[in-house]
Design brief:
Elements lengths: L1 E6 L12 H21 L3 E4 L11 H16 L4 E3 L12 H7 L4 E2 L5 E3 L2 E6 L21 E7 L12 H7 L6 E5 L5 E5 L2 E5 L15 E8 L8 E8 L5 E8 L5 H9 L7 E8 L6 H10 L4 E6 L2 E2 L3 E2 L2 E2 L4 H9 L5 H11 L8 H15 L59
Parallel strand pairs: 1-2, 2-3, 3-4, 6-7, 7-8, 8-10, 13-14, 14-15
Antiparallel strand pairs: 1-11, 5-6, 9-10, 11-12, 15-18, 16-17
């Protein structure tokens, strides 16, 4: 019997709501998975991509991750992983660095055998390049085979990848596909193969209302009844509480009614989302947010979804002023390179004096990485195709995304002077 933890979409380094506390929450959630792995003595931890939220994580996030991985290594538990779309480049990966340090194994077309199971990897591949895939995997002699992959696979929500094609065209008969990218946990059977998502380990979006967790996958050749089987069990994680308050205002009701509803909940150290519908008097979102934080909330955000005589139905979100910008960008057929430029211009962590150099550097990086110039082709910003988008419930990888994870370098020759920002090339 072989028991592995299947996790993914940890998004370490994500400063959700511009909060350093939330940034730490994402690392803490990953550490909690590793704590469970060590305590339970599993045979491996399998990570299905998007270990980091950004392909240029800051030094503190790298050091925190290395510290957690060392605990696994000290316990003799291998860390097997693939690369997700948030980390994806054509050059080296941070996962390669961890492999050089002896802390991880990057899965690919050669089997990595752990106990009775052989594990293979399929990094995130953009839709435009999938027709070139041949799904050629080397043979193995283990009882089971599992493919670890990052993408939006059928039959789950927002799918753009044909799971049956992967399974039927592969050289290996897989008993399980252990997936990442969709933040909603789910399991299905496709072509006699178990296909499963563990979901994200922390809420990267307010749409991810259900509790977070991971999968425990058991490969048991000696199962009761003599039949080989793969068993997938869901395990919960104790993460930052999110509180969702819905308030429907009747005529004559206003801010006092909203406060009354908010007071009904335990807000201690929680992220609080207040949604206002109905009619009623105008409400000042900032006042409600201040009230909620005074009541103990870590963070409070208000969304007012009401009709006005002037404009008809409006959907105004005060959860993050970037939402409207992001929605508009998603309607535009921007190339990957154009999105890099857009982020560099808009990021509040890039000093105005460094914007020009940052844009220049990012375009040059894309030219180096994308020899076929695919990154400069307009793309349809559908679910999972953008570096900023991911597989959450509403397909907004992080509907509170602050795009702050790529501060400009002070100089090209001194990456250490970038307030913690380093490039992988300085390590490899």
């Amino acid at each position: 019997m072989t028991r592995v933890i299947h996790t993914g979409d940890t998004h370490i380094g994500y400063s959700q709501y511009h909060s350093p506390v939330r940034r730490q929450d994402f690392l803490d959630a990953f550490e909690a998975v590793v704590d469970d792995a060590v305590d339970d003595g599993v045979d491996a931890v399998v990570h299905a991509g998007d270990l980091f939220h950004d392909r240029r994580p800051e030094l503190r996030d790298l050091m925190g991750t290395i510290s957690v991985l060392r605990r696994l290594d000290d316990a003799g538990i291998p860390f097997l992983a693939v690369v997700g779309n948030h980390e994806s480049t054509r050059g080296g990966q941070w996962l390669d660095l961890f492999e050089r340090l002896g802390l991880a194994t990057r899965l690919g077309d050669e089997p990595v055998v752990v106990g009775e199971a052989a594990f293979y990897g399929l990094d995130h591949v953009p839709v435009s390049r999938r027709d070139d895939l041949d799904y050629a995997f080397a043979d193995h002699d283990a009882e089971y085979a599992a493919l670890v992959a990052h993408g939006l696979f059928e039959p789950f929500g927002y799918a753009d990848w044909d799971t049956e094609t992967v399974l039927t065209e592969s050289d290996v008969n897989f008993d399980a596909m252990l997936l990442g990218d969709n933040h909603t946990p789910d399991t299905a059977e496709v072509a006699d193969t178990w296909v499963t998502y563990p979901g994200s380990t922390e809420r990267a979006s307010a749409s991810e209302r259900e509790g977070r967790g991971y999968n425990l996958v058991v490969f048991d050749a000696d199962a009761a009844g003599g039949d080989d089987r793969v068993e997938i069990r869901r395990r919960a994680l104790d993460t930052r509480p999110f509180v969702f308050v819905s308030v429907e205002l009747r005529e004559g009701e206003g801010e006092s009614r909203v406060r009354e509803r908010v007071r009904e909940y335990d807000l201690a150290e929680a992220v609080v989302h207040v949604e206002i519908t109905g009619e009623g008097d105008p409400v000042t979102p900032a006042a409600v947010e201040e009230f909620a934080t005074d009541e103990g909330a870590l963070i409070a955000r208000v969304t007012d979804r009401r009709e006005t005589d002037a404009d008809g139905e409006v959907d105004v979100s005060f959860a993050d002023p970037e939402d409207a910008v992001r929605d508009r960008l998603d309607e535009m057929a921007l190339s990957t390179a154009a999105r890099d430029v857009e982020r560099a211009v808009r990021e509040d962590t890039v000093p105005d004096a460094n914007v020009r150099e940052t844009v220049k550097r990012r375009v040059e990086e894309r030219l180096d990485e994308e020899a076929d110039l695919d990154a400069f082709e307009p793309v349809d910003s559908g679910p999972g195709d953008s570096e900023e988008n991911d597989g959450g419930d509403d397909q907004s990888n992080a509907d509170e995304s602050d795009a702050e994870s790529d501060p400009a370098e002070a100089t090209d020759s001194d990456p250490a002077s970038t307030d913690g920002q380093v490039s992988m090339e300085d390590y490899l």
